[in-house]
Amino acid sequence: xxxxxxSGLTKxxxxxxxxxxxxxxxxxxxxxxxxxxxxxxxxxTTLALLLGLLVPTAGRINVLGHDMAEDRFAALQRMNFSSPxxxxxxxxxxxxxxxxxxxxxxxxxxxxxxxALAAELELDPLLDRPVGELSAGQKTRAALAKALIxxxxxxxxxxxxxxxxxxxxxxVRGWLEHYRAESGAAILLASHNMDEVERLCxxxxxxxxxxxxxxxxxxxxxARYGREDMEQVFLDIARGRxxxxxxx
Amino acid sequence: xxxxARRIWGLLYRHISLYRRSWPRLIELVYWPVLxxxxxxxxxxxxxxxxxSPLVMAGGLLLxxxxxxxxxxxxxxxxxxxxxxxxxxxxLGHVFVSPLRPAEMVAGLIIVSMLRMLAGVLPAIGLxxxxxxxxxxxxxxxxxxxxxNLMVMGWWVALGVVSLILRHGAGAETLAWAVLFGLxxxxxxxxxxxxxxxxxxxxxxxxPSTHVFEGMRAIVVHGELLWSEMGWSACLNVAWMAAAIxxxxxxxxxxxxxxxxxxxxx
Lengths: 248, 266
What we know:
The structure holds 2 protein chains of 2 kinds. Chain A is 36% helix and 25% strand. Chain A has a 6-stranded mixed sheet, with helices on both faces. Chain A is built from 9 helices and 10 strands. Chain A folds into 2 domains: 28-53 and 72-78 and 153-248, P-loop containing nucleotide triphosphate hydrolases (Rossmann fold, 3-Layer(aba) Sandwich), CATH 3.40.50.300; 86-151, no CATH class. By secondary structure, chain A is of the alpha/beta class. Chain B is mostly helical. Chain B has one domain. Helices cover 79% and strands 0% of the residues of chain B. The chains are: A alpha/beta, B mainly alpha. The interface between A and B is large, with 37 and 34 residues.
């Protein structure tokens, strides 16, 4: 079963060039798919389209059986999102933020859910502290708790480990693996960290100038480009060094 | 329905939590209404003491005008500033990708604005009684209609301001403070609408607030309740609110098309 089906997804801002150009992809349940590309490749636009923040110029998006053009709120109830570029209110404590979003997502037995998340994400000592007073790593954990407050079936993550130290980043990746395995959720991950992509993603969509220029598992992409890791594959694609044969 | 109420409560809880943790915001709620009331109250008291009893009534009109106009101002700012709080905290992205419907967001902001308005205006009303023995409640039960019409006017003006912020980004945020102040001369807050030049009188009469203040003066001066003014005020509010809802819905959709919800803070 596919959690997300995007067909012919296209976005043009005003009279500018196409930011996203005819994307076709599926995100199966229980998988983590990476969305890779350089700056301006269309990753953020794609995530915003999937979340209903943007209306596509053409194409359709179906999330968990709901057409996002007709019924986006039913899908949003079962989705969530985290990005270092969108903050939680800084003056509110972690617990207050989680209560706010727990109510917005109509989470049943909210107090128990917050307690469980706090235990799992090691947030217990931070619950009564304002978000603005937390370190970058602690803020990431708080943002992750917000993103998981409704036990989403679809989780969209924009650079979830940006600006984190290697230890905290490793912890976050481990937790994402755990969540996907435990919940069967589908995760779409936009990232510039190739180690992260190799570790978490079963499939990767390579974007360039709004188009999917290649796709496949990290292992398949590495083999196809004759490289040793995804970092080198990324550089090949960014610099236009494509292999002779691409998959259909 | 239950989830809809919870989502509205979620937004309300977010703002209550913010005010609990920010004493400058709490002070700001009370500061402007009290300051306005003090400035105009002492001015009215001074003029009354110099000129005599006819101006005592004028002083009452002035204070009633100040306090009632604050109802509209605080209601408008309550909605617009609460929306801006989300923008300032870079939290709008989270709010807009939650299941919170635009109508629920507006309902939540309206409830926040009512609480903010009451927190600001009630102390000013109390202080007017203590300092000048002016009791706004002597206007009688019709005061509820005055409050209701002025609050609704504040809300539709705020929806217009939020629509402009959605259209033009944070650069339009000063409108949150400026728009209703700009309507003060047209609203005949401190003088009868007949004082205005004939050419701009139709503009003044198109505002619900003008009819509220005409009604207020009729009660204070003649002890007469003009239901026609209340009717005009209510009908104009319905028409303006409908127009503001259409404008907001269109701008929200246009923002989703343009991608403004991604970059509205810029």
